[in-house]
Amino acid sequence: MAGRRKRPSSEAERKKRRAKINRAYWAKHKDRINKGRRERAASDPEYRERRNSQGRGEPKRWLQRTYGISREEYDAMVAAQNGRCLICDEKPMRGLCVDHCHETKVVRGLLCNNCNVGLGYFDDDPIRLLRAAAYLLTFEAKAKVGTRTVRRKAVPGALATIGELIARLSPRRSRRKPLA
User: Fold this and answer.
1) Strands 148-149 and 144-145
2) Domain map of the chain by residue range?
3) What is the pTM of this model?
């Protein structure tokens, strides 16, 4: 059928096709592009400054843009925390993540990646975190070791305390069954 138009491709297909075209262009013209960039960097100080501030020239520059803190403030926070996470008190192999409130954009502290991601998965909701803690403590209170059930003395008290906290903090508490 002559003259029939092809069905428009999806956004993902268009992006893949465009990326393939861009890679081919770069491979073909790489030397000319790099030469032009070197010449412009040598003659234009504003261009050079802009290129150097894009992450390669100054590490942790994104701290200022993203969280409003300088590298020195970040380093001071790391020193104040002795390089340890505020939640698990572990010293991570990689750097500490900046934890912040997503609503107010206020920096709360520095956490290891696991603790920071964990808070994110709980949507920074303290009620959900308390319920998760109660869930884990309930399981630990009933955990079996070998053939006998182990009941730790601290667990029921912790469950009661968490239950009271949830009751005080959550207006929806009346619809849920008691934790302890």
Assistant:
1) antiparallel
2) 15-52, 62-121, 126-175
3) 0.54
Contact 170, 179 (CB under 8 A): no
Write down the pLDDT at residue 175.
Answer: 43
Burial class (CB in 10 A: 0-12, 13-18, 19+), 41: middle
> What single letter denotes the amino acid at residue 40?
R
**Spatial separation of the C-alpha atoms in residues 2 and 73, rounded to whole Å:** 67
Residues 6+ apart with CB under 8 A from 42: 48
For the stretch 31-81, pLDDT in tens is 999 999 999 989 998 888 877 766 544 555 678 878 888 888 999 999 999
CA angle 42, 44, 46 (to 5 degrees): 125
Pick the CATH number of 62-121 from 3.40.50.300, 3.40.1550.10, 2.40.128.460, 3.40.1800.10: 3.40.1800.10
